[in-house]
Specification:
This protein has 140 residues and is mostly beta strands. It has 1 helix and 14 strands. The strands form 3 sheets. It has a 5-stranded antiparallel sheet with strand order 1-5-4-3-2. A hairpin with a 4-residue loop joins strand 4 and strand 5. It starts with a strand and ends with a strand.
Amino acid sequence: MDGETLSTFPETIYPYHDGYNELTNGWIRVIDEERIVGPLDDPVGQCGFASVNGDIVLSSEWDAAYDFTANMLARVEVDGQYGFVDTTGAYVIEPQWEYADDFVDAGGQWVAAVYKYSESEVIWKGFINEANELIGEISY
């Protein structure tokens, strides 16, 4: 399930985290009423993004949502796997990585580091482009 772009605001939305929320590339991370009162170890409700234009993209599927980078992709976590969504909430890269960093501009190509773990130790690190193509890797 991808995020849903809403045409009207929910009754109440809140900053994603107190003290750690800023407008990034025209979007801010938000949560709904259920998420703010729900248990921290088992997120309920929705999290997502609100734009300066009034667009809101929320999903109950995302366990966590991160800021949009300048290529307008945001990292999301679903059941311990990381992927990337666009500003409509659609997956550009389905959640499939054990961990991922945000995309960065690497000299004209957008690249994100992705990881595989074994017993909390990084055993493999790769670099993907916006098409989820592996463009480099490091084995540990």
